[in-house]
Amino acid sequence: MASSSSAILLLLISLVGCFFSNSTANFYQNFDTTWGDGRAKILNNGDLLTLSLDKASGSGFQSKNEYLFGKIDMQLKLVPGNSAGTVTAYYLSSKGAGWDEIDFEFLGNLSGDPYILHTNVFSQGKGNREQQFYLWFDPTADFHTYSILWNPQHIVFYADGTPIREFKNMESNGVPFPKNQPMRIYSSLWNADDWATRGGLVKTDWSQAPFTASYRNFNANACVWSSGASSCASNAASSTSADSAWLSEELDTTGQERLKWVQKNYMIYNYCADTKRFPQGLPPECKTA
Ligand SMILES: *[C@@H]1O[C@H](CO)[C@@H](O)[C@H](O)[C@H]1NC(C)=O
Asked: Record's superkingdom (predicted)?
């Protein structure tokens, strides 16, 4: 009797555990659709989110939580076919005049021509830190994982686990680093055919609308900000669990080599190499010893 009821209890516990740990109701729990009048949709019991864009409007969503540091993964499948003129933005941002922001923006293209992955980092309202990449895979054929590691030492952008960009904390050189303002996750799909594709030469073909981008498998190992305090402030510093390893994660040798590989083979624009743009000298974070 006792053993059969404890077996049932165990079964119940594991069912409940399974309920919480898998991604069922993932998007319902973590995000709100914010604009686009029904063009942003949460589907499949919360496992899938889609944004769409047509001539009348784009659409967007945002996280319910704000975060202060985290390792955040999302799988995206971008607008396929002729996506010229469309931009899918996926980013973290705080609010107010001196805001911080960490950006992925995917610039669409004609069928068969490559997307550009545009990245930027704003600290205290100042950006102008663009780096752009082609990808080594077709981001429209399937879902791929885009991650942001944001801890006190650096910000790292990843595609499918490969680091593509590192923005180091260079406060010691007078470069502000995002570390005091909690950020929310945002994403939107919108029309930017005045600049996005070949600098605005290729316009959106509205006969292809609606354009759709899809999201799944959101995962955040992060410090959630609530009522003016971080969920990590009390325990993370003293915690040694694997769950908070990201808070002090650095790029290991393999990571550094892969980052170099991407930058050598796939980077198509780097503000730190744009001496024409900065005639008074490159920004201080570019001068790595
Ligand atoms: C689109 O394709 C053209 C031609 O290959 C390329 O120059 C451009 O960088 C691609 N991406 C965008 C977003 O314009």
From this structure: Eukaryota
